[in-house]
Amino acid sequence: MKIVRWMGIALGMAVLSACSGDKDAPEAAVPVLVVHPAGVSGQAPGVYPGEIRARQESTLSFRVGGELVARAVDAGQHVRRGQLLAELDVADFALQARASKAQLAAAQADLVRARDDHRRYETLAAQQLVSRSTLDQQTAALKAAQGQVDAARANLDVLDNQAGYAQLHAPADGVITHREAEVGQVVSAGQAVFELAADGAREVLIALPEATIGDHAVGEAVQVELWNRAGRMLPGTLREIAGAADAQTRTYAARVSLDDAVPDGVELGQSARVYSRAGRNGTLQLPLAAVQRGDDGSASVWVVEPASSRLKAVPVTVGAYGSDAVPVHTGVSVTDWVVAAGGHLLRSGQPVVAVDRQNRPVLKPVAAAAGSAAPKGGE
Description:
alpha+beta, conserved putative lor/sdh protein from methanococcus maripaludis s2 fold, CATH 2.40.50.100, six-stranded antiparallel beta barrel, Beta-barrel_RND_2, MdtA-like_BSH, RND_pump_MFP, Efflux RND transporter periplasmic adaptor subunit
């Protein structure tokens, strides 16, 4: 109610200014509260709010545990593939590697002795000075010594790998969206340290209600409207639908891929709307104050034209009035921005600043042309 009252005051002041101001001065745009036609549930059929996300999102973690001793990046920072992100304390790995090297050296010494013994027993066996079974025992001892060397060398390789795993590198170019650990913290293997949104394709994450999930399918063509580019539709495709509903919200997570290149200035986490033709058969409704009645009983609404931010009267067919809303059968679509209040103070062609119920502009303002003649009102 406060927003509606504020809109009325602003519109009244604009009318008084128009009557007393210079006729040659550019016409000032007045703020108007706008809404999208909604369904009976309050959600416009086929319209789903979403969030810009990266096509590839990765949780980055260490393959070994230890104390985090260095962190080279922070949330929001862009990184390159192979860039060092964080590092664990490697003191324990160094000690283990020294012990493993000592074990390898001892195993190699045993192998040298076993080879010498085996050659000596081969000579004695050829002279029939020792039995065949004794030579077989020396052959088995030689193989065991070789196995000990192989095991010690493999253990050293594992420790060398673990020392390398103590450094966390970026797997791809992208942006660090979250940081989950800090220097001094002891992390376990596989524990999340960073979230990385890879460069490249962008998508819109939406939630499909279970009541309409049967209307949608992977591959469906949709339209995407970015919040900072209201009125501009981008083609998209429904790429993925979750196989099960969320236990709390009872909605199905879905991802919409953008068919065209993402415009400059579109950042991760920004708001978007996805428009789908599926499930649009529900009845739309508007606030009572949005519908204007003519002397002949005809009904119309004010629609803001996105390209010019000017008003246009659109005839509509309405149903029986409710306590606070009226069903609209024809004339408007779910993508239209319809003036929700103060319509009796407006006129066709008037420049406006369209704002939502949070007093946020929903369309980019277009400067009124100086000296332009105002269209005739009365619609």
